[in-house]
Amino acid sequence: MARFEIKDDFYLDDQPFKILSGAIHYFRIHPEDWYHSLYNLKALGFNTVETYIPWNRHEPRKGQFDFEGMLDIERFLQIAQDLGLYAIVRPSPYICAEWEFGGLPAWLLEEPMRVRSSDPAYLAAVAGYYEQLLPRLAPRQLQHGGNILMIQVENEYGSYGEDKAYLRAVKDLLVEGGIDCPLFTSDGPWRATLRAGTLIEDHVLVTGNFGSKAAYNFSQMQEFFAEHGKKWPLMCMEFWDGWFNRWKEPIIKRDPKELAQAVKEVLELGSINLYMFHGGTNFGFMNGCSARGTMDLPQVTSYDYDALLDEAGNPTAKYEAVREMLAQSFPEYPQLTPLRKDSMEQRGIPLSQKVSLFATLDRLSQPVSSLYPLSMEKLGQSYGYLLYRTRAEWDATEERLRLIDGRDRAQVFVDGQHLASQYQTEIGEDIFVSGQPRESQQLDILIENMGRVNYGHKLLSDTQKKGLRTGVCKDLHFLLDWQHYSLEDIDPDQIDFEGQWQAQQPAFYAYDFELVECKDSYLDLSGFGKGVAFVNGFHIGRFWNVGPTLSLYIPHGLLKKGSNRIVIFETEGEYQTQLNLVKKPIFKDIGGENL
């Protein structure tokens, strides 16, 4: 069997080996496109693929595991191996990755534990997950006939904690689970994070994450190695070739030629993993969230990342710039002709059906009753929307309502009429309602969990618990007797389109169309407000007209020859009677102009 070792350099079967790796997250790409992305990595001249493994997708509910379809990590690794690619796998419980809650499952929030620590309750949860995951990875290590070179213990832990007992416990779980390939950690390259987040004393390889200034950053790592008597090879485990994007902020770009020179600087000194090589898409409710002061800033559905492959997996100008640099400066790495996919356009798809949420609510969710409103997590819900409903008797011609302690975005309706929308820090402000004394009216509050933070101390904050966490006040007192309708796993086939539609209410809109050929496309949502979309029942993600993105990517693997259906759940009362599929993504200048 082949052998990979870490000494003064990386060695593959006793020969020095430079790792040229690119990040491709299988869980962000439709399985029909895995080969396309991995082939393009190989075609660039690279020899290794790197991927995180998201705990929250593989164990969405405690004790319930999923490794099928888009989550079939074994199939992904096999395709890579068949192409002659090695693999770096990062199954650390926490992944960051601009992914919901950094990959931690939301059900941990209702468990009495401290995440990312040596808390026995947390380690027991990790152990239960690894019991299912590691038997799928262990046989795929290089020395056992697979292609995995290295496995990560924890991710950027030095930017979070310094609980070495926790790091050693995770390492021990990996070893006990049959992982005997080299282990590593990845952190910022300066001493504080390296001291706090590594297991250098335990001979676990230290790698760094940065996006420029390779000589300087590697020199800091070498100083840390020397402190501990190590002569290790240098590797940037995340060389940031682009960046992620948030709602209401401009798209972030990096110059291709500048990037190519920066990559060259890394390769002259050590090994590299490009983060990202292919970013893909945050399908469903899986976008992460940045923490800034009292605000949590959710990231967009597209994880294009301005990477070497675009969201659809096609080579970009960056790909060509890096390809040219490698051909000139590192000709020993053979290159191939990359693959490119076509996209398609279909305009004027007519609206087939529409219905208000309130008219089909009972078909989508079975209500749960309680005296006071419950948070999402207490109801066993992790993501999406939650509708709270009660009846209130009016005591004056104008009443004051307040939502006490809620996240993230709330829409308030009285007898079906929209009163107010409040977002994060606005929640708790006065909402005034007109009515008649002694009349009883229905109060509905639709709350959207827009994503949990994926980085930093706020992983421990109460703001990561979603929905109404305390209650709703009318005048000065809390209202009672609530019904809760979970809208986490919306099944478009269960929507009753025979119900009524009413303007300015959250509603479902269905569009039916025929295809003779299936190609990638983008769903134009520039005429809609805010919500989510489903293609043939698959949840392709969130949209919001604040930009910077005004479209959602549709992989060809979600489409069918013959009849197709797109269902849009829109919450602001803004929709179109015709729908367009277009060949390229649509963006919005934050100044208001479409690009």
From TrEMBL:
Membership in a protein family: Belongs to the glycosyl hydrolase 35 family.
UniProt KW Hydrolase keyword: yes
Keyword Methyltransferase: no
UniProt name for this protein: Beta-galactosidase
Gene3D superfamilies reported for this sequence: Galactose-binding domain-like, Glycosidases
Stored InterPro entries: B-gal_1-like, BetaGal1-like_ABD1, BetaGal_gal-bd, Galactose-bd-like_sf, GH, Gly_Hdrlase_35_cat, Glycoside_Hdrlase_35
Domain Beta-galactosidase 1-like first all-beta: 373-488
Domain Beta-galactosidase galactose-binding intervals: 506-564
Keywords in alphabetical order: Glycosidase, Hydrolase
Pfam families: BetaGal_ABD_1 (PF21317), BetaGal_gal-bd (PF21467), Glyco_hydro_35 (PF01301)
Highest rank taxon of the organism: Bacteria
Segments forming domain Glycoside hydrolase 35 catalytic: 10-327
